[in-house]
Amino acid sequence: MNTPRFYNTLTRDKAPLPATPGQSVKIYTCGPTVYDYAHIGNFRAYVFEDLLQRYLEVSGHPVSRVMNFTDVDDKTIRNSRAKGVALSDFTAVYKKAFLEDLAALHIKIPAQMPCATDYIPRMIGMIESLEKKGVAYQAEDKSVYYRIERFPSYGKLAHLNLDELKPSGRVNHDEYEKESVGDFALWKAATPEDGDNRWDSPWGAGRPGWHIECSAMATALLGDTVDIHCGGVDNIFPHHEAEIAQSEACTGHPFVKLWMHCEHLRVNGQKMAKSLGNFHTLRDLMQKGFSGRQIRYALISVHYRLPLNFTFDELDAVGQALQRIDGWRRRLSALPAAKGQPPAKWLEDFLEALSDDLNISKALAVLFDTIRETNRMMDQNALAPEDAASHLAAWQIAESILALGEQEECVAPQEVLVLLEKRKAARQAKDWKASDQIRQEIQTLGWTVKDTPKGQELIQN
Ligand code: AMP
Ligand code: ZN
């Protein structure tokens, strides 16, 4: 098997996986800010990371994965205070919801999911060490900032020149207090708007900045150097740049060997984002009748470094792709069983495609070519049971990466099932008028009846 190669945001080049065959891989992924339900743009990042993890595991690399919960920051504090709920009670709701969403999308629960609020002493320790080294300073506003001019390679990940730095996103508070506009907050002095959400520190009461949270959790759980650090492209600057500056200035070691970032899920060309109001949560979509596996497929089927435009038409098209895979698998399974066959050759091509920076389009093309060819052979009764078993063995391995799962059983409400029985009786009595009326009634309840050679089939509208 080829050594996997992945695109490294730092070098802007594909680099070999920084692990020898069989060696485990340490992955850190920035997790959700738990102030609301995550939207499917966020899940594009988490699904891509899951694909990476599953591919590495199938390739013989055990993965130690850490994904944090950002359970203290400006937004979590603002929203919990607006609701009059304690921060920990408020974030608990969204942590639970996030885990449910991961399960619905067949995303493996990372081995460790630390909460920022459990690592505040470590964050304070890191900031103290940065202060001792002259890299951090307390400003007049009592907040502590990172002095970026003391970290000459600041900007290396985003390929930015220090002189070009402009305030952006979460670093733009209280510019006038800082020595330099690019300096970012490590510790934010408590304000009246923070309410009780404050922790004691050598610099007075306050709370950590967002960036130091990830540096503290990543190094605490994975050591000074992480093999792969992932996130969406919006995390590159300033968040990941700041993580490098903080961690490397503290430990003296390289923080990350390989940086991988996924492009955005977009809506009409714009990033899907809470702030733009153009988002769908997973829950919204599932309520509209889309399944977790459908949404997962839609999110993984476009290469992670290409922008992906969200449309409902696209989600419908995905339903057809899944039906094709489901139908093929069922047909293969229905053939006489032949046990203990090695996986079919196409699996090698499938894995080789993924070894090239997770080239999912090529991997799926291998799968669908196989489906077309084997369906043709099955149409002609020309597929030997041994070959069918080999295809199924290959599929099982491919499926452990794609994780599409089985077609969800769709159980209609009792009311619909009773009508279905009545219609069956009407048809047996050749009462076509009654049969059509009942079909209409079922239709108004949101279900379509199809008459197939095997009998009536229900499809949810
Ligand atoms: P947040 O909760 O805002 O910190 O974001 C969690 C993760 O989702 C981060 O890795 C972001 O980079 C990622 N993300 C946010 N919006 C999108 C989007 N529209 N498409 C892909 N990834 C996104
Ligand atoms: Zn992070």
Structure description:
The protein has 461 residues and is an alpha/beta fold. The protein has three domains: 5-262, Rossmann fold; 270-402, Anticodon-binding domain of a subclass of class I aminoacyl-tRNA synthetases (Four Helix Bundle (Hemerythrin (Met), subunit A), Up-down Bundle), CATH 1.20.120; 414-460. The chain has helices at 40-58, 74-83, 87-104, 120-132, 210-222, 236-251, 282-287, 292-300, 312-334, 346-355, 360-379, 385-402, 414-428, 432-444; strands at 5-8, 13-16, 25-29, 63-67, 136-138, 144-146, 184-189, 206-208, 226-232, 256-262, 265-267, 270-271, 308-309, 447-452, 455-460. It has a four-stranded parallel sheet. A four-stranded antiparallel sheet has the order 5-6-7-8. Strands 12-11-13 form a three-stranded mixed sheet, covered by helices on one side. The longest helix has 23 residues, at 312-334. It is globular and about 90 Å long. Residues 168-175 have low confidence and may be disordered. The structure holds adenosine monophosphate and zinc ion. The site of adenosine monophosphate has 17 residues, from helix 1 and strand 9.
Provide tags for this entry.
461 residues; Four Helix Bundle (Hemerythrin (Met), subunit A); alpha/beta; binds adenosine monophosphate; 4-stranded parallel sheet; Rossmann fold; single chain; 4-stranded antiparallel sheet
Q: What percent strand?
A: 5-15%
Return the average pLDDT rounded to an integer: 93
**Under the CATH scheme, which architecture of the largest domain would be assigned?**
3-Layer(aba) Sandwich
What is the highest CATH level, the class of the largest domain? Alpha Beta
Question: What is the N-to-C succession of helices and strands?
Answer: EEEHEHHHEEEEHEHEEEHHEHHHHHHEE
Structural class: alpha/beta
Cofactors, ions, other ligands? adenosine monophosphate, zinc ion
> What is the global morphology?
globular
What's the count of strands? 15
Kindly report the name of the CATH homologous superfamily of the largest domain.
Answer: HUPs
> Helical region count?
14
Query: Largest sheet at a glance?
Result: 4 strands, parallel
| Poorly predicted spans | 168-175
- Report strand order across the widest sheet: 4-3-9-10
Number of domains: 3
CATH fold-type name of the largest domain: Rossmann fold
Task: Compute the CA-based radius of gyration.
Answer: 26 Å
Report, as a whole number of angstroms, the end-to-end distance: 45 Å
Helix content: 40-55%
